[in-house]
Design brief:
The structure is a single chain. Helices cover 50% and strands 12% of the residues. By secondary structure, the chain is α/β, with parallel strands linked by helices. The strands form two sheets. A six-stranded mixed β-sheet has the order 6-4-7-2-1-8, sandwiched between helices. Strands 3-5 form a two-stranded antiparallel ribbon. It starts with 16 loop residues before the first helix and ends with a strand.
Length: 305
Amino acid sequence: MTNHGRGVGSDMNSITGFHRFTCLLVWLLLSLATPAQALSPVWMVEKNGTRVFVAGTMHILTAEDYPLPNAFETAYSQSGQIVFETDIAKMQDPAFQQYLLDELSYRDGRNLRQVISADTYAALASFFTERGVAMADIDNFKPGMVATLMTMVELQQLGVDAIGVDAHFNQRAASDNKASGQLETLEAQVAFIANMGAGQEDEMLSYNLADIERLPELWQSMTRAWRRGDLDWLEQQIALPMQQDFPEVYQTLLVERNEAWMPQLEAMFASKEVEFVLVGALHLAGKDGVLAKLGARGYRITQLP
């Protein structure tokens, strides 16, 4: 996924604001942890003798990213229910896929050419044509979908085309007959992408075009941080700059959703069954992250090796 920009760093400080938005889009597809030592992106959360595992995920990976860190297997093997951000199995439903296309396409007579400048449209056409995608195939898509497609096409060029952590465990849970659940609906996630960049369509896509060349560098930094569980990197390089440069996106994407999940997460501690919760890693970073919210409510949080 992809978007906007104004500085954050190539060695961390030249990744632009857009790259923060790129991270956001990647995790939306479409998501790490530890301040001082490198462990894993999996935590055990405990209170009153009960526990829940919480993991930060990447929603798309390369084949070389497998096997996953051992902590994932530890949490999975000890859990009776796997809880995802949303209903992953439903993503494969043809009816939902049609709904997705409908919601992420203009249905009011407009098209992409009408909401962005001629220069930006021409640059987009060049980008997609060079990668074998005809503009006729995306002209009716809303900018949030176009930005997402740009990033996904570029990631495929980098060989990032394997299923992510969430899909991996969704398949495992189905095969092992483990119960699964979700924290929010797919429709809610689609609505965010559909409304992304509203009123700033040209700015969003022009930043996207300008900075997507740095995606290989960004992706390497993200996956390294994810594997070592570096939430501190995520907070400093993604969450805080996003909060400063894109406060509405930050509020909608992270703060509101994280807070909406809290009653469900806390209810898990009333169950004798152990749950394993997998959410995009960005949801775990910073003071507004799920882990900070649980810690403030008196839960003991331990990062797994």
